[in-house]
Amino acid sequence: MRESNENQSGMFLTLCDDTVKRVYEQMPPDEILYDLAELYKVFGDSTRIKILYVLMETELCVGDLAQLLGVSQNAVSHQLRVLKNNKLVKFRREGKIIYYSLSDDHVRRIISQGMDHVKE
Amino acid sequence: MRESNENQSGMFLTLCDDTVKRVYEQMPPDEILYDLAELYKVFGDSTRIKILYVLMETELCVGDLAQLLGVSQNAVSHQLRVLKNNKLVKFRREGKIIYYSLSDDHVRRIISQGMDHVKE
DNA sequence: ATAACATATGAGTAAATATTCATATGAAAG
DNA sequence: CTTTCATATGAATATTTACTCATATGTTAT
Lengths: 120, 120
Description:
The first copy, chain A, is mainly alpha-helical. Helix content of chain A is 57%, strand content 12%.
């Protein structure tokens, strides 16, 4: 927990003091940056990325997802929960079957942006 | 390792078969999706996100980074190595001091995109 | 009601990873 | 060349996390 920008015994002296102070003042609250990291953490697993990636094409049910990705139903279900909790996917029920889809275009954009970087 | 899209004992039958098959065929190779997940994994740690975030403003040396983020020099150094290995930051030496900065605008764009999603 | 099927979930385990501690490297100053 | 300062790094540890197994929930059909 930080409560001051004051200099004390050599703090903030390596670079021009003003620059460091300015950067410090413009930093968003820790919680925001923590949330941002948490968001990326969700994208940072290959099973989840695969789920999100195929959902860019079409909605899919749990069983089909499992087969497409070649992982167990349990594993997919666990990861779908993570995606659900983070509001990256939504779902609708049709009888026994539950169809998952991307919850909005942000997800699509984030993945595309990442793809651009990877393809280099 | 998957070698066929063939149906065998109830595979790909839940949804319209063609849809699942089409999605399967359009999936990028596993390696690409794995790399994509790896990229996001790098962003998915609060120390690293903080480093990247402050580097959007200005280049900074290791010591200043440590003080700004309130973590030890060791920790910052370890994380800078991860960022370096993934080509998200670059650095220049000036005597004893090493200044780190973002390696390109992709990084900036990815973070901004994520921020948009978090701020909702 | 019971069986069959699709999905969800809790507990346990194994693997990944972020930090700390101690120490190494490398540059500049005396 | 020795000391000091800035940064890097190896090993050990603690925490997180993704998966498996077993089982639960909920829906439809008989």
